[in-house]
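Entry 12.
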Amino acid sequence: MVLPSKSLNVVASDLSHLMVRAAAIQAFLYKPSMLYVPRPVIGLHADPKELRINKYFELEVDSRIYCGDSLLGEFTCPKNIFLEGSEFVDVYFHPLDLAKHEIYSFEEELSKPWVSLSLEVQKKIVAAMAREIQPDRTMTNPPFNAKIPKHEKERMSEIIKRNQAFIEERKSKERLSMFQQIEEDIEQKMELITTDYKGVSKEQLMFAF
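Predicted 3D structure (tokens):
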């Protein structure tokens, strides 16, 4: 689905390990920019003077092809795609679970003047912010005839409860607009996923996704 794209900033995922491996082989032959992106391309992904990342999802792995559940935003991937026996690590791409958004770990630092932070901390914050950039386009192949399994619904319910507790803990803190936007986006996704769309056509659902 993504091979015809001319973009150098593509992310792909599938629930099946077999399909992920097949996609990695195709990417190796025809779109290596998906399989190996060890650092931002200066001038394309990042501005060296402003320490600003432009639509580059800087993660802790080289590859941009992941195995996992795109509804949850939770995936796994080898840390080094070309290292035999490389450990698999967790990759979070707009996860529904708020606690898994790294930017929240910098709440205290973000309340301070930017110039007072060390360059190392600034870079970490910029990378965490870059992970919150929304994709320009999304292509999906969801099973429109299938219902969400019981165990998935239970997991969603657990995430909703965790998110509610997560937000409640932060009520006394100053809420940056960035965090409010993240929480609103997650709430909308949760509503979309958990709503029973009886009487709605597949075409309408496709546009909703």
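Annotation: The two ends are 16 Å apart (CA to CA). The chain has a mean pLDDT of 80.
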